[in-house]
Write a structure and sequence with these properties.
By secondary structure, this protein is mostly beta strands. The chain folds into 4 domains: 235 residues, no CATH class; 100 residues, Immunoglobulins (Immunoglobulin-like, Sandwich); 152 residues, Jelly Rolls (Sandwich); 72 residues, Immunoglobulins (Immunoglobulin-like, Sandwich). Helix content is 1%, strand content 48%. Strands 3, 6, 7, 8, 10, 13, 15, 18 and 19 form a 9-stranded antiparallel β-sheet that branches. It has a 6-stranded antiparallel β-sheet with strand order 12-11-14-9-16-17. Strands 28, 30, 33, 35, 36 and 38 form a 6-stranded mixed β-sheet that branches. It is elongated.
């Protein structure tokens, strides 16, 4: 079922259901932005591509490639006369693809209530324009009859399943011949279709020939027509890849897939943050890195079964869609998809004040609570039974080396006297600090907090533990809390992963940032020229900017593109790092 929805003066096609459309077909709509009559308002029929029952994409290829806009016309199935014939050439470069055409689709602007006898023939030719005219029977000689029968042209898209599929090589141009046999002297009302008006004064003549006659089929030479109808050609599409997986690594995103059963090549699309809406256009030869628009890119094209995508940035979720490519730039209607986030690089910091949930890519059943942090929000778990167990696991991190540590502030505080009553050590359970180097499949305990190493206090304690054993690996850190005999909160805040020698440990360098707060430019004092680079993080820990030092005594950084809020700026060199809060007005 087809319907149009009016939206800000435009008509947008919505395909709700069409059971006769094969699900394994890819459609090229041969069309362009179109003006209609006042009653129809404005209809936009730019090249639309379909998969199965839904609109395929938002990337346009103008076929026919002709200047101007389209308007409704009675061609190619004109019933103003009893018998009409058309012969229209479509350039191979505009079609772009080769393969088997098994369906044709024509956009119907004005519908017609009765069925009409039509015939469609297709033929490949070496010439791109008519060099003259002739009779329809002569010019259509050798064409393949792909459909003959009655068709009812309801408003919307009319799908015509070809009784004889047509193998189009794309080495020549394509002629679409149409025959309309209404009978008698025609009809006073007609269906209309999207057409270009050919401007013969600009050298675009002889694309279209037409023949008309009442009471019998025309036998005279054709007339040079000035209408160029819009068509869609439906090609057989290959099966999708059998499987597809995206797995993040410290050096990029590793993509692995299994080809379809006949071993077609694969084309993979990538978008950060959300699933891609723009998709590859059939008939287009793509290369890695090609921009499909709307922040969607070609991640891979080729015959391999794995690929390391390095065009990604840390701390970002990427969505991938994998298509099969049959070698003729006809892509599979069905796809395989996966998404994964890239690890954060260290140093990493979050104080949990940016929101009311766990930071991006963290998970667990501990909660982000106001008043449970060193200044505001913190991560908390209420434990009131020895059987209680809560956890928070981080995003994954790279850049771990022999000096790396995990650091955070924590406390145990009674539930009934919160936050002014410390929990006695004999009532607390154990907090296990665990690390996974296999994407969270399993965790190993590297340290713990319990009655043996904790002093009861309402103040936060600083905790540090070495990550040296995981040097060079991608890791996830988990805090696992088990209950004790008391009823209390475990709070932690100011979580960091960094090199031990940097933050708050190096007295030979200092970090001065001014003005702070600011709305545009900041200046960093690097008078000793010891900082080699700078990074700016938001308070979810997401890396936003990386800047290489200019090796001058001051470094200016433009932060005008950042939203107003609080950020962390980290200055580092080969052995140390310093951080401070940065306020953007």
């Amino acid at each position: 079922m087809l319907a149009y929805q009016e939206n800000y003066g435009k008509w947008v096609l919505k395909i709700r259901n069409f059971t006769e459309t094969p699900t394994n077909q890819t459609v090229i709509i041969l069309s362009q932005t179109q003006k209609t009559t006042n009653e129809m308002k404005t209809l936009f029929l730019a090249l639309i591509m379909f998969t199965g029952l839904s609109l395929f994409g938002q990337n346009y290829c103008l076929v026919p490639d002709y200047p101007g806009t389209t308007s409704p016309d009675t061609d190619p199935f004109d019933i103003t006369y009893g018998y009409t014939r058309t012969a229209i050439i479509y350039n191979k470069s505009n079609i772009g693809a080769s393969g088997t055409i098994n369906q044709m689709v024509i956009p119907v602007i004005t519908g017609y209530n009765d069925s009409i006898n039509i015939t469609i023939k297709l033929k490949e030719v070496s010439f791109s324009t008519w060099g003259g005219t002739g009779t329809y029977s002569t010019l259509s000689s050798g064409a393949t009859t792909v459909f003959s029968g009655k068709v009812k042209f309801n408003a919307g898209y009319c799908y015509i399943n070809l009784t004889t599929p047509f193998a189009f090589s794309n080495t020549n141009h394509l002629i679409i011949f149409t025959e309309t046999d209404f009978g008698g002297s025609g009809s006073s009302t007609q269906p209309t279709f999207a057409c270009y008006t050919i401007d013969n004064t600009s050298g675009y003549e002889y694309y279209s020939l037409t023949w008309h006659n009442d009471f019998s089929a025309p036998t005279s030479n054709g007339l040079d027509g000035n209408k160029y109808p819009v068509w869609a050609l439906v090609f057989d599409a290959p099966d999708s890849p059998q499987s597809f997986h995206a797995n993040s690594q410290c050096d990029g995103m590793m993509l692995n897939w299994q080809k379809n059963t006949i071993g077609d090549d694969v084309i993979i699309v990538r978008k950060a943050g959300t699933a891609p809406s723009n998709k590859p256009i059939m008939g287009t030869n793509y290369s890695i890195g090609d921009d499909l628009g709307n922040f969607t890119y070609i991640a891979y094209v080729g015959s391999a079964q794995s690929y390391l995508d390095t065009a990604v940035i840390p701390g970002t979720n990427y969505y991938y869609v994998a298509y099969s490519d049959n070698g003729n730039q006809i892509f599979s209607a069905n796809t395989k998809t996966d998404d994964a986030y890239t690890p954060y690089n260290t140093p990493y910091f979050t104080d949990f004040d940016a929101g009311s949930t766990l930071p991006s890519y963290w998970n667990g059943d501990m909660t982000n609570e106001g008043g449970h942090g060193t200044t505001d929000n913190g991560i908390a778990a209420r434990l009131n039974s020895p059987a209680d167990e809560f956890f928070a696991s981080t995003a994954s991190f790279c850049g771990i080396n022999s000096s790396s540590i995990v650091e955070f502030n924590y406390r145990f505080v009674n539930y009934s006297g919160y936050p002014n009553t410390a929990t006695p050590t004999n009532e607390i359970g154990t907090v296990y600090i665990q690390v996974s180097n296999n994407n969270g499949s399993s965790f190993t305990t590297i340290d713990s907090i319990s009655s043996s190493n904790h002093t009861a206090s309402t103040s936060f304690h600083a905790f540090q533990s070495s990550l040296a054993a995981y040097s060079g690996e991608k890791i996830i850190i988990k805090l696992l809390c088990t209950g004790g005999s008391g009823d209390y909160y475990f709070d932690f805040d100011d979580f960091q992963v960094h090199d031990y020698v940097g933050i708050n440990e190096s007295n030979s360098i200092s970090l001065l940032v001014y003005p702070n707060p600011t709305s545009d430019m900041i200046t960093i004092d690097n008078s000793n020229q010891q900082f080699t680079g700078f990074q700016i993080f938001d308070f979810t820990g997401k890396l936003l900017m990386t800047i290489t030092s200019n090796n001058e005594t001051t470094q200016q950084i433009d932060i005008s593109n950042l939203n107003a809020g609080i950020y962390i700026i980290v200055a580092f060199n080969g052995t140390s790092a310093l951080r401070t809060k940065l306020i953007k007005k």
